[in-house]
Amino acid sequence: MAVGIVDQVVEKLKLSSIFALQLDESTDVSGEAQLIAFVRYRDISEINEHILFCKKLTGSTTGKDVFHVIDTFFSEHNLDWKSCIHVCTDGAASMTGRVKGLIAHIKEVNPDVQWNHCIIHREALASKRMSPELHEVLNDAVKVINFVESRPLNHRLFERLFNDSGAEHQQLLLHTDVRWLSKGKALQRLLELRNEVSAFLAEHSHPLVVMLENTDWVARLAYLADFFSKLNNLNLTLQGKDTHILNMYDKVCGLMKKIKLWESKCEDGDTSCFQQLNSYLSAGDVDRAPTVQLVSTHLSRLNSEFNHYFPDIESKSAKLDCFRNPFMTESTDNNIPTRLQEHLLDVSSDRGLKMRYSETNLSQFWWDVEKEYPDLGKHALNELLPFGSTYLCEVTFSSMAVIKSKHRNRLNLEKSLIAAVATLPPRLTKLMSERQGQVSH
Known about the structure:
- The protein has 441 residues and is an alpha/beta fold.
- The chain has helices at residues 2-16, 63-76, 93-96, 102-109, 119-126, 132-149, 152-165, 182-192, 194-203, 209-212, 215-238, 245-267, 275-283, 288-309, 313-319, 321-324, 338-348, 351-359, 362-372, 374-384, 391-403, 413-421, 428-440; strands spanning 19-27, 33-42, 47-57, 84-89, 114-117.
- It is built from 23 helices and 5 strands.
- A hairpin with a 5-residue loop joins strand 1 and strand 2 (33-42).
- The radius of gyration is 26 Å and the shape is globular.
């Protein structure tokens, strides 16, 4: 079944003539390195995405090794590297190294290929660096959560405390670095249950109980809970299937502008942007000035980090405005050929296409444009084709952890995983006829 599904995807890639790749590597429960690839391609009347393969990496996982696995797959299925116009990966050296990285090896066979560092990974890296004071609060919060939740006896005693107090939630949430949303959720829950946690720590004579009784520490915890909740909101909008890079650029640009707004407000002593922090500072006997100064300094550093990881996102996004909405572009884009600029002016004056634009999604709209203006439509669809993140690979790794568990650690993932996550239906008639042929022989 998996082989048949892959054959369908390969057929579609050959008909499409161009496609984009999303790649990521992870280690499964048995310690084997698994490389997963997703592909996005032009189908009959829309842009589709699908898992292409899951391959085991034997030995090392260098850029050369990863390239060899992909190149072997391409050779076996007669896929041309020239058709791969874009690759999205994380920022690991094995992927991005200028000499020995995967992208360097791909450029040797296709110099025109474009690469994008996963936008969600970049956002996570940009928000990771904090001042020592805030980092210490985060570490202490994790220690408190681990003391309660990672020990079965403590967990049961804490649940009993909840039952006696009538609290809304039954438990704290563990924080895991590799899970994008866990930090915000874990801090949020700890902030909500800080009184119950403080009582539990005091009962067990835990030294960190003094932190939960320290108003400055709790104020910083409230800020971190607010801040990471805002990052979670961004992360959720960047995730999902069929997310095109234009929309992801818009979301990140929006956050970068909000960071500047938050910094400006905090410099004036206004913390209303952070609801829980503002409520705590307003209700409690807390010295506002040190906390507000700490928040302002963090936001200033955060602004610098985002500018470092997204140095040209505004200009990249602006260059795509003519494809984002051709009816609101005041001037044509000088980065595209004059002939396409002329067609773009024709499209912007076409009232029928304008009505169609408001009734359909962006990729379907450009499919309609391509029928009348083939070159312009094709160019626009090519701009919508690249992946903006490695989200699909990350989700598939979660599925991999379920499929290949410690009880099934010798399972061959290649076929099992593809059959589990595939969205294309298997060709059952063909499979049955092949099976009957094997039985007759």
